[in-house]
Design brief:
Length: about 325
């Protein structure tokens, strides 16, 4: 409510202007329309819990909801007694060998579970890739032998952990994982059929040939599940709009939002937030506002994406 004095001279009374607040949308239900993907993830968790190693790879455009699915998968895994190890690939850190591996095992290292007692036998070879001091002086070996030893050690450390409880390794933005961490995940995927271990990755479409090769190798592993996340359809967009608080949205408004966002949950959320900030309530008249509407959140997101693709894309 704004209180302002009426008239240009000294007022003898006060006039009240009541300002109607803009509608605020509720947090978008990012898992709407993802029942199929969740069912496949549940199957992967069930397989791993029974001692049959399982791998699943989510693929989809930025903003399509991969991170939300990973979060839900981690939540479901914890509820089933899994130890959840999580990491996120970072574009600027792709050159750091075993960077993602160190992220994944950071909780184990920080809790002191990678002690001398843990790193016994073959698992002792995991000390070097994890950045821990080796238990004894290592002989001089070739690079190939050192890589093989690191993979072998990480595998047996994983096997030791999985012997205590089922284990899931969750990697977001997998297209930016360093090469050595990718090799470990592939190494783990081949012999892990008898381990209660699941690997779940999420990646956007690869922009570079090296990224495409890595993702293709993961998808080609025997038994790997590839979930190609498609955009939301018009009906699902309508459900999202309703759940966001616009319960009486007109069909024309829904169609306009679907067309403008392309069914991308992130873009849809930014679009709805921007429209509601202008006072839109989802009427047929509001449908005309959608075309050409560009909230600042989308502008910044699109600008960052273009910048990452180089001057030709810009």
């Amino acid at each position: 409510m704004d209180v302002r004095r009426a008239g240009s001279g000294r007022p003898s009374s006060l006039c009240l202007w009541v300002t109607r607040p803009h509608r605020r949308i509720r947090a978008l239900p990012m898992l709407l329309g993802r029942e199929g993907e969740l069912a496949r993830i549940d199957a992967v968790l069930s397989s791993a819990r029974l001692g049959h190693g399982a791998m699943a790879a989510l693929e989809g455009a930025p903003g399509i909801g991969k991170t939300s699915l990973l979060s839900e998968a981690a939540k479901r895994a914890r509820s089933r007694g899994f130890c959840v190890l999580q990491a996120t690939g970072v574009e600027l850190e792709r050159e750091y060998a075993f960077g993602v591996v160190r992220q994944l095992f950071a909780p184990i290292v920080s809790q002191g579970r990678c002690s001398v007692n843990r790193l016994k036998g073959a698992a002792a070879l995991a000390a070097v890739p994890l950045g821990l001091p080796p238990g004894r002086a290592e002989p001089s070996v070739s690079t190939a032998d050192a890589v093989a030893a690191a993979m072998h050690g990480l595998y047996w450390l994983t096997a030791d952990l999985a012997a205590e409880m089922p284990l899931i390794l969750v990697l977001d933005d997998a297209q930016w994982a360093d090469v050595m961490s990718w090799r470990f995940l592939l190494y783990l995927g081949r012999p892990s059929e008898d381990l209660p271990v699941a690997v779940l990755t999420a990646a956007r479409p690869a922009a570079q040939p090296s990224e495409r090769e890595q993702l293709a190798q993961m998808a080609a592993l025997p038994g790997a599940v590839v979930l190609d996340m498609a955009p939301l359809g018009p009906g699902e967009v309508g459900r999202v709009i309703e759940e966001s608080g616009l319960t009486d949205a007109d069909d024309r408004f829904i169609a306009a939002c679907h067309g403008a966002s392309g069914g991308n949950p992130f873009l849809l959320g930014e679009l709805l937030a921007g429209l509601c900030a202008t006072g839109a309530t989802g009427t047929a008249a509001d449908a005309a506002l959608v075309a050409g509407f560009a909230p600042q959140g989308i502008v910044r997101w699109a600008s960052a994406r273009l910048a990452s693709l180089g001057p030709d894309a810009e």
